[in-house]
Write a structure and sequence with these properties.
Elements (H helix, E strand, L loop, with lengths): L4 E8 L4 E4 L5 E14 L5 E14 H10 L5 E14 L5 E14 L25 H8 L29 H9 L10
Parallel strand pairs: 4-6
Antiparallel strand pairs: 1-3, 1-5, 2-3, 3-4, 5-6
């Protein structure tokens, strides 16, 4: 099965609304409007046709969208495209363009925002970011060793000869000079 993913930037045209699925999973929906802006032959900006999308997000992303976004906000949405055919009340067929949002954020081209890490959430069946094992790994920086940065850029300097004393007196000279010929074994 071929799936189409896309990234769209635009503005929220509705206030996000929270819902609960039949399985208890939280989700949120909102509509966004997007149009291309270009310069005409006279150098003036012209807005092209406006496209409207219905966005649906789930679980923790839904909770964060409800807490962070409001109607009119400039956003960028990345997700899976869904095109649905329908028939209007007057009998005319139509197409609805929907996006199952996987990432949503403010569009920083138009302003600034401040990130706030959300509190721990309850475990939601099937939401990999709610899995306690994943959260334990995240708290431990995914198993990265605890290394304090020691330079002003925040990088840890690696000195392969820093442990010369551990090699013993005979090998300390070769370790200090960088001569791999004495006292170092290749395994």
């Amino acid at each position: 099965m071929n799936e189409s993913y896309l990234t769209v930037s635009g503005n929220l045209s509705t206030q996000p609304e929270g819902h609960t699925a039949t399985n208890g999973a939280p989700f949120a929906t909102f509509r966004m409007a997007s149009n291309e802006r270009y310069r005409d032959a006279d150098g003036r900006y012209v807005d092209s046709h406006t496209n409207f999308y219905k966005i649906r997000v789930w679980n923790r992303l839904a909770q964060n969208v409800l807490a962070s976004l409001k109607k009119g906000d400039p956003v960028v949405v990345h997700g899976k495209l869904r095109v649905k055919e329908f028939t209007r009340k007057d009998g005319i067929p139509g197409l609805a363009i929907e996006i199952d949002g996987y990432s949503v954020g403010h569009n920083l081209v138009q302003g600034t925002t401040t990130y706030t890490k959300g509190p721990r959430q309850v475990v939601i069946e099937g939401d990999r970011w709610s899995d306690p094992a994943v959260n334990r790994e995240r708290e431990n920086d995914w198993g990265a060793p605890d290394i304090e940065p020691i330079d002003e850029d925040g990088y840890h300097e690696f000195d392969p000869f820093a442990d010369a004393d551990a090699l013993g007196d005979a090998d300390a000279d070769s370790a200090a000079t960088g001569d791999p010929g004495r006292g170092l074994a290749v395994v």
